[in-house]
Amino acid sequence: MLNRIILVGRLTKDPSIRYTPNGVAVTTFTLAVNRAFANQQGEREADFINCVVWKKQAENAANYLKKGSLAGVDGRLQTRNYDGQDGKRVYVTEVVAESVQFLEPRNNNEAGQTTGGQQFNRESQSQFGQQFNKKDDDSFSNHGQPIDISDDDLPF
Predict the structure, then answer these.
(1) Cβ–Cβ < 8 Å for 101, 7
(2) Helix (H, G, I), strand (E, B), or coil: what is residue 59?
(3) Can you give the CATH number for the domain in which 51 is found?
């Protein structure tokens, strides 16, 4: 049997961290993931997927991710249920992340960023970008300049 989920998307709001009575960190966030196809109006829709992260990864996610951050999540799908305050059974489906990757630098002024035990620096990022941006006429390229995006421009 296989239960594996791999997602890449942007956080819809800042992550929320809490601690269990035993002191274990738990962070939750929602990831907006674009669908690979357009609807009948030609617009691409997004799915909003709840994610939960535990222990040290939870603390890292809470400290380094924020609304709009691009993140990769590798984990498993889980369903659970509980009795709500009104006495009705509530069902929850979420991704339990085994690994969360921060896919963009926190700040363009930083030389490097530690993510999930891996060190990414500007040199490796530029080499990565060269693999995919072989054309100079890329209309989405920022030509080495920061991209100016306001919260109003985000789809969530």
Answers:
(1) no
(2) helix
(3) 2.40.50.140
Q: What is the pLDDT of residues 106-130, one digit of tens each?
A: 764 344 444 444 444 444 444 444 4
What is the rounded average pLDDT for all residues in the chain? Answer: 80
Distance CA(125)–CA(108), nearest Å, equals: 12
Structural domain contains residue 34: yes
Residue 137 lies in a domain: no
Q: Is residue 55 part of a domain?
A: yes
What SS3 state is found at 14? coil
Instruction: Please give the full DSSP string across 10-37, using - where no structure is assigned.
Output: EESS--EEEE-TT--EEEEEEEEEEEEE
Give the range of the structural domain holding residue 80, as residue numbers without chain letter. 5-102
Q: Would the pTM of this model clear 0.70, i.e. be above it?
A: no
CA gap 150, 129 in Å, rounded: 23
Per-residue pLDDT tens over the stretch 91-102: 999 999 999 999
The structural domain count of the chain equals 1
Residue 29 lies in a domain: yes
pLDDT on residue 110: 43
* Position 118, amino acid: Q
Look up residue 76 and give its two tokens: 């498993």
